[in-house]
Amino acid sequence: MKQFAVIGLGRFGSSIARALSEMNFEVLAIDKDESHVKTMEGIVSQAVVMDATDERSLKELGIQEFDTVIVSMGETIEDSIMITMMLKELGVRQVIVKAQSDLHSRILKKIGADRIILPEREMAERLAQNLASPKIFDFIEVSDTHGIVEMLVPKKFANKTLAELKLRDKYQVSVIAIKRKIPYSKPDGSTDFKEDFTIGPGGADELISGDVLILLGRNDDIAKLKKL
Asked: Which has the closest alpha carbon to 9: 49, 55, 54, 68?
């Protein structure tokens, strides 16, 4: 069974950790904020209060034995860069990092990050799983069997809440985020659109036509959703 560690338990990190646990993966959740860690206790395999910028603590925790480490630091760019560099030096096979800007993303690439995600704007490192399908925009491989995908909301899902859709029960996928284009007025009076993200949405969140779902699931189950 593939092992994952998630460093940084803000909305994005905790959502990823929760979704991986729902897929029955072994997940280690790490944050220096005790309140964040407590919310993950009983959900993930292990939740630890720790400053991940301390290399000795990472070694003692055995972080190098994990197949994939996801770094989702919300505090400072410097911390995520330092942690990413240490993880690669310790020999972690795959390091996936949440970036806060294009500059941050470029730095992470230079120090060896294997995958980079810009959740507030787009899923970075676009890897088309199926160019023939207009419903699938991005795919990031999490393991040989699971991935994170951006998918246009099917028409049959529009105007329904996540609780009504029961995607986890019916399709065995977890919703990590919802991306939506919001209209706004420009200074010249014309209308334009900006992207809005709901990270870690709840059952009461309603989908509308044109929304994009960011999902985590088995590749086989994601393939089934393409057909809707």
From this structure: 49
CA distance 211 to 179: 6
Helix (H, G, I), strand (E, B) or coil at 209: coil
Residue with tokens 């284009």: 181
> Cα separation of 222 and 219, whole Å?
5
pLDDT > 50? residue 119: yes
Q: What six digits make up the tokens of 178?
A: 């919802």
Asked whether residue 10 is domain-assigned, the answer is yes
Count how many residues are written for the chain: 228
Q: Specify the pairing of strand 68-71 against strand 115-117.
A: unpaired
φ/ψ of 69, rounded to 5, equals -120, 130
Residue whose C-alpha is closest to residue 172's, from 100, 117, 224:
224
Same domain (yes/no): 99, 185? no
Q: Is residue 129 in a domain?
A: no
Q: 200-227, pLDDT tens digit by residue? A: 888 999 999 989 898 888 888 888 887 7
Closest CA to 149 of 167, 132, 168, 174: 174
**123 pLDDT more than 50:** no
Sign of CA dihedral 120, 122, 123, 129: positive
Q: Is residue 131 part of a domain?
A: no
pTM: 0.63
In the structure encoding, which two tokens stand for residue 180, read together?
């939506």
In this predicted structure, the answer to whether residue 136 has a pLDDT above a threshold of 50 is no
Within 10 angstroms of residue 118's Cβ, the number of other Cβ atoms is: 16
CA distance 61 to 69: 13
**What gap in Å lies between CA 210 and CA 155, rounded to an integer?**
9
